[in-house]
Design brief:
CATH architecture of the largest domain: 3-Layer(aba) Sandwich
Number of helices: 34
Distance between the termini: 62 Å
């Protein structure tokens, strides 16, 4: 039981708090009290964002706010304290220890037992807690006794207990932009109670620009400088305080450089440096290199990272890159500083301007395969035959590549169960571009040997030969064919990835998917978007129920918002969430919606934020695969084959059938609300496995009123016997085989 405070202590505390409130620094007085007053960090607390929804709904889980000084971490915690119905306890890790933690936990337990009210425990500078102090929190966070909110300027993945980290959602706050800082200054000058609204202050534009630029994204630094400028500037005869550029420069003289060789900035700057080199930006690479050298970073650390990059991000695109960095590092050891900076710059610029390839990551794909999949046996013809070749046949029938033209022959090298698997994907730049075509050609022939048996029949490297003698290659080949039968899933995955690539969704995007009843785009959005928001508009109520059921498997804060209805009801959903606007809208085959209601495109534009993008995938069947082209030469007479081709082509030329041409799509997707329309046409190869049942379906007439079958289209130019002859040719030459065909999609990107 806690000891009651004496009355004089309470009065003393009240007097002390009143004095501090009246004389607190401007930065503390102007601290926002509500989300509406909060400036910046729109990507995590803007309308529709996950954190804003959680605060407004008072449905918080444990959180960690991570970001540089002055970005609003403690302010957000105080806003939560003002908003939540739970009790709020604040500790500072610099001033508190295990004793204070236990006292806070005791209060939370008593409160939960007596009033069933939750307690939020906010710990500022949580990275200052040692492991024992963080461990003391863990069981109470896990049991739900307290909801933990931490604030830290250091990377929580390095500074916070992993167990505590796994139970918290991390929000990274960024440095405030110049427009945000200008708003902070304007609020301080206008507020009559907490700021300088009662004073006549004229802050010159160039003075404000200097304060904003040198504050380096730190609102506290800006307000401290503004306060110093006001307090040290006398009013003129008219009572006006004039703050010009000179006063501003005296108030905030130098921009702080965030760099701590043992802290988070160290990792952020080296990360920016490596990413700039990887991104082939020599100017940015030199800037970040200069920042590290200026801050006293160990050049050997920089060289170690460049040595890794030379293989990881350049590799065979420029095999000399590794040698150049190795030589530069050795030269630095001979010369030392300051002249050694030449060798740092040499290595930096060589790698930044070199062609790039990450194909060496193929090794890790192979390593993962070895670790996770059933171990494959070495094929007999690849085994060492020097010891037991005569008895067990090891090494026999191995095809010696140098005995063949171009020193290569198709034979089995991978274990049977892995035939057709590829790990190495050659890049298309530099030295590696020269070997790309050869590697791909060899693979294609290798696969042909696997499927069609082009290697000698008596060669044990031929998988089809093994199929007659063992069951394992049969299983491997069936798995390959199964992947072919599931080609539609792969193509849908490629379509999904292309849409997201064109949309350029970031972790803070607010996304809406449309005509996405299967959730193909929705769940990818949930994976990619961490701090933003994911919504989907579903017309079918049953599909919405299924998506809702799937969403319930996620944490409550990770669940997407599933809206039911058509585009006409979208405005109603937006009206229910004031301020909500979508950064991106992704859709598949939206043409069927627009054909029925052309105005729907304008409704989507209204739902987009300024500069938001709508990205849609539409099939272009007119340019797709033709069946007659799959028939081998000689399957039909030359004259008959030509007539079959003409008959099938006439299907796609029929003006009564909508085959969705590019120009039609451009007209359909033109709306004055969008300032820009880009159309990308994508033609790609696809594997087709044609079953006898597919052919039967093509040659089964449809009822009147239905879309005609393939055979009914052919019958317009071929007689009944000729149509039957085509079907027999298809059954003979196409059924039960894998064919390489083409598919064409259009991707439309519209910018509001």
């Amino acid at each position: 039981m806690s000891t009651p405070q004496r009355t004089e202590d309470t009065l003393f505390d009240f007097s002390r708090r009143r004095f501090l409130a009246a004389n607190a620094p401007l930065a503390d007085r102007m601290r926002p009290r509500t989300l509406e007053e909060f400036v910046g960090q729109e990507r995590i607390v803007g309308p529709g964002r996950l954190l804003r929804r959680a605060i407004q709904a008072d449905q918080l889980s444990s959180l960690i706010f991570y970001g540089p000084p002055g970005s609003g971490k403690t302010t957000l915690a105080r806003i939560i304290a003002n908003t939540t119905r739970a009790d709020f306890i604040t500790l500072n890790a610099v001033l508190s220890g295990v004793k204070e933690i236990r006292a806070a936990i005791d209060q939370a337990q008593n409160r939960l037992g007596t009033t069933q009210r939750r307690t939020i425990l906010f710990i500022d500078e949580v990275h200052r807690f040692n492991k024992a102090q963080q461990d003391a929190l863990l069981p109470h966070v896990e049991s739900g006794t307290v909801i933990f909110i931490g604030a830290t300027t250091e990377n929580p993945f390095f500074e916070v207990n992993k167990a505590l980290l796994s139970r918290s959602r991390i929000f990274e706050l960024a440095l405030l932009g110049e427009a945000d800082l200008a708003r902070v200054a304007a609020q301080a000058l206008a507020d009559p109670e907490r700021g300088y609204g009662k004073l006549d202050i004229l802050l010159a534009d160039d003075a404000l620009a200097h304060l904003v630029a040198t504050a380096n994204g730190d609102a506290r630094a800006l307000l401290n400088a503004l306060e110093l400028a006001v307090q040290t500037t006398a009013a003129d005869a008219s009572g006006r305080i004039r703050i010009d550029r000179e006063v501003a420069e005296d108030s905030i003289q130098k921009k702080a450089v965030l760099y701590d060789k043992d802290g988070d900035a160290h990792y952020d700057v080296i990360s920016a440096f490596i990413k700039s080199v990887r991104g082939s930006d020599p100017d940015a690479a030199l800037y970040w290199l200069a920042k590290m050298v200026h801050a006293g970073e160990d050049p050997r650390f920089i060289f170690r990272r460049l040595l890794i990059l030379a293989s990881e991000d350049i590799g065979l695109a420029d095999p000399h890159a590794l040698s150049v960095v190795t030589s530069a590092a050795r030269a630095y050891d001979y010369v030392g500083m300051p002249e050694g900076r030449f060798h740092l710059a040499h290595a930096c610029l060589y790698l930044a301007t070199a062609p790039k390839s990450n194909s060496l990551l193929a090794f890790f794909s192979a390593l993962e395969s070895v670790a996770k999949e059933r171990e494959g046996e070495v094929p007999d013809h690849l085994k060492d035959g020097s010891r037991d070749g005569a008895e067990l046949g090891h090494g026999q029938n191995y095809l010696y590549p140098h005995a063949y033209r171009e020193h290569w022959v198709a034979q089995q090298y991978l274990p049977a169960a892995l035939q057709g698997r590829t790990f190495y994907q050659p890049g298309c730049l530099g030295y590696e571009a020269g070997i790309k075509s050869r590697v791909e050609r060899c693979r294609e022939e290798q696969l042909a040997a696997l499927l069609e048996g082009q290697t000698p029949a008596d060669n044990p490297g031929n998988a089809l030969y093994h199929a007659a003698h063992t069951s394992e290659p049969v299983r491997a080949r069936n798995q390959w064919l199964k992947r072919t039968l599931e080609d539609s899933g792969r193509r849908l995955g490629e379509l999904r990835d292309t849409l997201f690539r064109l949309a350029d969704c970031g972790p803070d995007t607010v996304l809406l998917t449309v005509n996405d009843e299967t959730g193909l785009l929705l769940w990818e959005g949930v994976r990619r978007i961490v701090n933003g928001g994911v919504f989907t508009l579903v017309r079918d109520a049953r599909a919405a129920e299924i998506l809702e059921a799937q969403a319930r498997n996620l944490d409550s804060l990770e669940r997407p918002t599933i809206l039911t209805g058509d585009l006409a009801t979208l405005a109603e959903h937006l009206a229910a969430a004031p301020g909500l606007a979508f950064d991106r809208v992704l859709a598949r085959s939206l043409k069927s919606w627009l054909d029925v209601e052309p105005a729907a495109l304008g409704r989507l534009a209204v739902a987009l934020a300024p500069a938001g993008r709508l990205v849609v995938a539409e099939p272009l069947p007119r340019y797709g695969q033709r069946l007659y082209r799959l028939l081998p030469p000689g399957a039909l007479t030359t004259e008959f084959a030509a007539r079959l081709a003409a008959a099938e082509e006439s299907i796609y030329a029929d003006p009564n059938l909508d085959w969705c041409e590019e120009e039609n799509l451009r007209r359909l997707y033109t709306d004055p609300a969008f300032t820009r329309l880009e159309l990308h046409r994508d033609q790609h190869r696809r594997e087709l496995y044609i079953r006898p049942a597919d052919i039967d379906n093509w040659f089964t007439p449809r009822n009147e009123g239905e879309r005609p079958a393939y055979c009914q289209h052919l019958a317009k130019q071929l007689d009944h016997g000729e149509v039957a002859q085509v079907k027999n040719a298809f059954l003979t030459h196409l059924a039960g085989r894998v064919h390489t065909g083409t598919a064409v999609n259009a991707y439309l990107a519209l910018t509001r």
